[in-house]
Amino acid sequence: MSLDLNSATGMFLGLAIGDAMGSPIEFEKPRPRDNYIRRYQSGGFHSVSKGEFTDDTSMALAMADALIESQKTNGYPFDGHMIMNNFLDWRYNGKFSPREKCFDVGLTVNGALWKYKEDKTTPFTGCTHYKSAGNGGLMRLAPVLIVAKNKSEAIYLARESTRLTHGAEEALMYSEIFAEEVWDGRILPQYVDYRHPLDIDRDDVSSGGYVKETFQAAWWAYQTTDSFENCIIEAINLGDDADTVGAVAGMIAGRMYGFDAIPKWMVEGLQWSEHLIDVSKKLVLLN
Ligand SMILES: [Mg+2]
Predict the structure, then answer these.
(1) Quick check: 279 and 8 in contact, CB under 8 A?
(2) What is the C-alpha separation between 238 and 248, in angstroms, rounded?
(3) How far, in Å, from the CA of 54 to the mean position of ligand 1?
(4) What is the whole-number distance in angstroms between the Cα of residue 247 and the centre of ligand 1?
(5) Superfamily assignment of 5-286 in CATH?
(6) What's the 65 CA to ligand 1 centre distance in angstroms?
(7) pLDDT digits over 170-206, tens only?
(8) Domain spans of the chain?
């Protein structure tokens, strides 16, 4: 059984909403609870406009487009070359981005795309050094989890899609765990040690670009709140890599609570929201 439309659309929109809510406070310090950002804002490091998403969502859209195209031409959604060529189209031509320009790209992604541009022998150009275990593969997992036909395929596609730009074993491992739990729609007891204890002090929840930090911060935000909206707000206000922690928390909360539980203002204030809903539907039709 694949993910249903409500969970799938919730997960994809959750990614984009967390990204767009978090990007204005990317690289900031954690905000005190009485001064939380609770709405879409403009500004920040990348001078985003209200409801504008960044690389996290653009790369997910680039991947989704390739999955849909590959299903049409190859009869199977995953084609690493098609995805990487779409990533290049985003990186160098600004496709899949409301600004029509790539303005936010992680170092590891940038290195992998440059390598692929120079030599297209293999699409799996992600650096394998253990210090390169960033969150750039984890942040864009929604599309492959939607098209997967069963749990083992979800785990396999999570690994393969991550490996395109992130080859470090730790990055692959967190993508696989994420795929398994999101697929099941519940927290699995065997992975309890990969998360923060729930009584952790908020000051001890780091939210940087290291995949482990992003994974832990996103699950912590989900586990310590009781709604989609509060999960996003808790996640982004940790600051630092706020957009990507928001995107990962948004995927979790969107999948768990479903699209129907996302407040209207969060969907309506998001740029390209109609398009994102449409793409989610197309992906669901592939599974
Ligand atoms: Mg970003």
Answers:
(1) no
(2) 13
(3) 5
(4) 9
(5) ADP-ribosylation/Crystallin J1 (1.10.4080.10)
(6) 19
(7) 999 999 999 999 999 999 999 999 999 999 999 999 9
(8) 5-286
